[in-house]
Please model this.
Amino acid sequence: MESGHIVKSFDDELNQLHGIIAEMGGLCEQQLALAIDALVKRDRLQAERVIRSDKQIDRLEEEVDNLAISILALRQPMAEDLRSVIAGLKTASNLERIGDYAKNIAKRSEALTQSEQLGNATGTIQRMGNLVQGMIKNVLDAYLEGDGDKAEDVRARDEEVDLLHTSLFRELLTYMMESPGTITPCTHLLFIAKNIERMGDHATNIAEYVHFRVHGHPPGEARQKGDGSSTMVVEPMGN
Model:
C-alpha cells in the first residue's frame, strides 16, 4: 500500500511539472503573437505589455527548476521517469529563452513605431512568426502527449523558417545599400527576424528532448538547416 502511495505521489509531481511547462508554453505562444502584432500595428503600449509579462515566464521556469530538483533528490527516478524530468528541465529552459526573444522583439517594435514600413519586410516577419508560433504549439503538444512523430514534424518545419530568414536578410541588405536612411529600421528588423529564427531553433531543441524522452536517445539524423545569412555576400550597387 505504501509503495502504491509513493508511485501516485511521484505521478502527481510529474503531472505538476508537465502542467507548469504547458502554462509556460502557452504564455510563450501568446507573447510571440502579441509582439508580432505590436510590430505590425506599430502599437507601443502592446509592446510594453509584452516586455512586462516576461517576468511571469521567468517565474514559471524557477518553479520547474525547484520541482525538478526536488523530484530528483527525493524520488531518484530511473529510466523513462528520469528522462521525463530531464526533458522537462531542458524544455523549460528553452521556453524561457523563447520568452526572452519575444521580449526583445517587443523592445525593437517600440523603436520601429517611429519609422515607415519597408516593402513587405513586416509581412515576411509575420509569416515567420506564425510558423514559429505553430511550431511552439505543436512541440508542446508532442511533449505533453509523449509523441515522438509529432516532435519530428516540428524538426522538419524549422528549415522553412530558416529559408524565410535568409530571404528577408537579403531583402533588408538591399534596402540598406540603396538607401542609407533605412539602415536604422532595417537593423531592428534584422534583429527581430533573427530572434524569430532562434525561437524556431529552441522549439526544435524541445522536439529533440521529446524524442530523447520517448526513445531514450537523441534523434539519429542532424536536422536540415536552411539559413544562409551567415555566409551571404551582397555586391555593392553599380558593380
Q: What stands out?
A: The chain has one domain: 2-231.
